[in-house]
Design goal:
heterodimer, A: alpha/beta, eight-stranded parallel beta sheet, five-stranded mixed beta sheet, 16 strands, about 20% strand, elongated, B: alpha+beta, 1 helix, about 25% helix, extended
């Protein structure tokens, strides 16, 4: 056997984008040629080089005698979809920084490129805002369960070094219970008949102070998160509280909304979407915002999450000309007995009724791990390698569907993730060759 | 490989890699050089992934990456 002495990495375009952040337009393509005496990895931008380095590292094997070898290879590669995301929920359970960073590593091993950081929700507000520090001071589980500006910066930088975008989700107007603790009058007071019940509902859409606050917060988010997009949420808004509040009813009457609370929600969301545009960001929203008929800017991305009829939703969203992200079939918080990775692997994102132009509007997908039953103790094994199945579906060509071949490769990939410190759970029976008796 | 690349040809011919001699470096003509910390960091990281988990060699002194 002859020896491979080096891997030469060549960025071919004038602007390597070395000092930039990755974005939805980032070029991740690369060519890799492995032959004696040196391998050559060519990419237009650094993002492609990162993906190619991952591929190169997977090609190197170690034999039983401790010698490293690689087969001569010729690879040309680029992703099928531009948006390949993992949603992690850090509100329902707080995730320590270390867990987030390990999962960013695992994302890079699987060529994911978007960390959808579901950073706040009803249960807690761990994001420490510079403008509104009381939000986390009052809304986090404890003073320990917060992401400081330094922590957030670290996550963004760590992700950038792996070609991963960080898109924060600040869900609004629903799922905002934790916001109300640190921001007076932000939430709608609910009524029991003529009297306040003591509970609070979604964001109060009838007060000017609500919009002043949101604009200030969005201005901060703009400066903290470099990505072009902000996820505004917009899901599961419960109208019960708005319906009970006499001031909201009066406001609805004045505006001519009759009894349509979806119109009230639309009124609120449209103002927030305009604010997002005014701070030079673009929006991603959950599908209900689209379903409720909110006037969306054409470049607003709609994320399809409802499991039933998601193909019909993709058809409708793209028919209206909106880019779409598919999450519905990849809710990894649902667990079942056996090899459910096959179910995730078998999803074809473009399998819906629509013309070519509609299908081109599907920018990608996301595997989602909501936090109800997941914290640092079980997040990683529940996520990996099940999310890997989604990763290949979003990266590889449409015709890469052979389950038996995928099983063999994914089993080995899971062992590779273990070696690199990611506690990925087993796919099925078997072992990893590097396991030793004293390894736990 | 995971995920599977778009186009892939792997030949049976094998090449050896010696951890103490193998280097990941910027090729000539690259618009990114040693000042590109993103790539420098990635070179170090992937050198570690390739050679750092050997059951035989992980106690050896690692060759610093130039």
């Amino acid at each position: 056997e002859t020896e491979l002495f080096s891997l030469q990495v060549i960025i071919t375009s004038e602007d390597s984008e070395c000092d930039k952040y990755p974005g939805v337009e980032s070029d991740e393509s690369y060519q890799l040629q492995v032959s004696e005496p040196t391998a050559v990895l060519k990419a237009s931008k650094v993002w492609g080089a990162l993906r190619g380095l991952e591929t190169f590292s997977q090609l190197v094997n170690e034999d039983d005698y401790g010698s490293f070898f690689i087969n001569e290879s010729d690879i040309s590669d680029s992703p099928r979809f531009a948006h390949r995301g993992i949603l992690l929920d850090t509100s329902r359970h707080f995730l320590p920084l270390k867990s987030i960073l390990i999962n960013l590593d695992a994302m890079a091993f699987n060529k994911f490129n978007v960390f959808h950081w579901h950073i706040v929700d009803d249960q807690s507000f761990p994001y420490q805002s510079i403008t509104f520090p009381e939000l986390s001071a009052q809304g986090a589980y404890s003073y320990n369960h917060v992401y400081t500006p330094t922590d957030v910066r670290l996550v963004i930088d760590y992700a950038r070094l792996r070609g991963i975008r960080v898109i924060p989700e600040f869900d609004t107007p629903g799922h905002t219970e934790s916001w109300g603790k640190g921001q007076k009058d932000f939430l709608t007071p609910c009524y029991n008949g003529e009297h306040p019940s003591g509970s609070y509902g979604p964001v109060n859409p009838i007060l000017n102070t609500t919009y002043d606050f949101m604009l200030q917060l969005l201005k901060e988010i703009r400066t903290v998160f470099p990505d072009e997009y902000i996820h505004l949420g917009g899901d599961e808004v419960d109208f019960t509280c708005w319906r009970s509040n006499p001031d909201v009813s009066e406001f609805m009457k004045e505006r001519g909304f009759s009894h349509s609370y979806t119109k009230l929600e639309s009124y609120y969301i449209e103002k927030i979407l305009d604010m997002v545009s005014s701070v030079n960001k673009k929006s991603i929203v959950w599908q209900e915002v689209f379903d409720n008929g909110v006037q969306l800017q054409p470049d607003t991305i709609v994320e399809v999450w409802m499991g039933t009829l998601y193909k019909e939703e993709l058809r409708r969203v793209t028919k209206e000309g909106h880019p779409a992200i598919l999450a519905a079939p990849w809710y990894l918080d649902y667990i079942s007995y056996g090899q459910d990775w096959k179910k995730y692997y078998s999803v074809e994102p473009l399998d819906f009724l629509g013309c070519r132009a509609q299908k081109e509007l599907v920018v990608g997908g996301e595997a989602c791990l909501w936090g109800e039953y997941v914290d640092a103790t079980n997040l990683t094994p529940r996520l990996w390698p099940r999310a890997s199945a989604v990763g290949e579906r979003l990266w590889s060509s449409k015709n890469v569907t052979d389950i038996a071949d995928a099983y063999n490769r994914l089993t080995e990939h899971r062992c590779r993730m273990l070696r690199r410190g990611v506690a990925a759970e087993p796919l099925f029976v078997g072992y990893c060759s590097n396991e030793t008796g004293d390894r736990t | 490989l995971w995920p599977l690349p778009r186009s892939l040809h792997i030949s049976p011919a094998r090449l050896q890699l010696a951890p103490k001699r193998f280097q990941i470096l910027h090729g000539s003509g690259s618009s990114a050089g040693p000042r590109c910390s993103l790539l420098q960091d990635a070179f170090r990281r992937y050198y570690g992934y390739i050679f750092g988990y050997s059951k035989w060699q992980n106690h050896d002194e690692k060759k610093p990456l130039s």
